[in-house]
Amino acid sequence: MWRSAQDAYLESKVLSADPVELIGLLYQTGMGAVQEARGHLADGKILERSKAITRAGKVLIQLTSALDHERGGEISRRLGALYGYMLGRLGEANLRQRDEPMAEVLSLLATLAEGWEGVRPAAKAAPEPAADRWNPAATSEPSPDYADHAWSF
Questions:
Q1: Contact 135, 152 (CB under 8 A)
Q2: Whole-number Å distance between alpha carbons of 107 and 117
Q3: Angle at 84 between CA 105 and CA 79, to 5 degrees
Q4: Which residues contact residue 40 at a Cβ distance below 8 angstroms, ignoring those fewer than 6 apart?
Q5: Nearest alpha-carbon partner for 103 in 113, 95, 93
Q6: Contact (CB, 8 A) for 80 and 67
Q7: Whole-angstrom distance, CA of residue 59 vs CA of residue 141
Q8: Domains (ranges, CATH) in the chain?
Q9: Of the N and C termini of the chain, which has fewer Cβ atoms inside 10 Å?
Q10: What's CA 54's distance to the chain center, in Å?
């Protein structure tokens, strides 16, 4: 029951997310999978560890496929190389049953996730004050809150 409710919540979150939020969700999902894999390694649960590492690898593949090398230029290429490196480290962790590569991948994902939080569009950062929203003389542009509405008297 808990898993299906959690899955439904995640599905709802994904379907309503914008592209920036989706990448943030991927980072969070990847970090969670790596943390889970580390826990399974410590507990000696080989199958569960392998499944969690596979899930983290799938997240890295999704992140790689989301890169736009045409518009992203050098940053996009470097991120692609970093994601590839992390995939290799996860493979090593799984093959050798070692925690160090997973700890490194977790640290890298956490750093990227933290940086990604700074990418959020400024429009979502702070709503416009209510007084200016309803006073057309206060701004030279119409407020986006009612710009799409057709008003007639």
A1: no
A2: 16
A3: 85
A4: 46, 48, 49, 52
A5: 93
A6: yes
A7: 41
A8: 2-124 (1.20.120.340)
A9: C
A10: 17
